[in-house]
Amino acid sequence: MVPVRPKLPRHVAVIMDGNGRWATAKGLPRSQGHRAGADAIDRLMDASLSIGLENVSLYAFSTENWRRPITEIRSIFDLLVEYIESRLEPIAEKGIRILHSGSRKRLSAKVLSKIDKAVEVTRKNRNLTVNFCLNYGSQEELLSAFGKLLEDRQKKRIGRGKPVSAKELEKYLYTYSLPPVDLLIRTAGEQRLSNFLLWQSAYAELFFCDTLWPEFDRKSLESALDWFAGRTRKFGGLENE
């Protein structure tokens, strides 16, 4: 039985690291590691639904991942297309809403059509929101958001001479519909943010674990949530204020 937790994070972000190392350790091609990682996403979604989480963001492919060998990139996007085609119906039936955060540039028409279909088919679902951060980089997101903000100001002839507020800028972020990240989990022993949701994670609790992503399961998630429940979050103030 899952223990009753005094508090749950409204938004959990996950850097899914370790697919390649998992495959290499087993003498398998890296593509098999990514396939095993997709199965771990299924487990995470089911566990999140059962526990009662509201929003989960997953770092699926970063803007820096384009530096990887073209064969690996192709296998990742082929797997993405296959994943959506095979999982979209059960995901929708479970009441999961799919979102996409990231640049649409460099993504093929086929990949974009699959992503758009997943977002459209699940847009009314409210049991859990899963935000796939694909072709995502936080610095790119912030530069893009600021550029669009200034462009809109010029077009609408508003806000000239006024400083940009955080609230105004946030309207242009990919994640505008989501609350700030409360808990950020990174697997596989690495302890860095890697350009992931930097603005959104300003006051996130950071949980690092050695578990490789393909081995991440409900017990792993519960360990992170139990750790989060024991944290005192002061947001720059004092505990008893």
UniProtKB/TrEMBL annotation:
Its EC number is 2.5.1.-. The keyword Mitochondrion does not apply. One of its GO terms (molecular function) is magnesium ion binding. Keywords: Magnesium, Metal-binding, Transferase. It holds the Pfam family Prenyltransf. Mg(2+) binds at residues 17, 205. The active site is at 17, 65 (proton acceptor). The keyword Iron does not apply. Binds 2 magnesium ions per subunit. GO terms for biological process: polyprenol biosynthetic process. Catalyzes the condensation of isopentenyl diphosphate (IPP) with allylic pyrophosphates generating different type of terpenoids. Belongs to the UPP synthase family. This is Isoprenyl transferase. It comes from Leptospira fluminis.
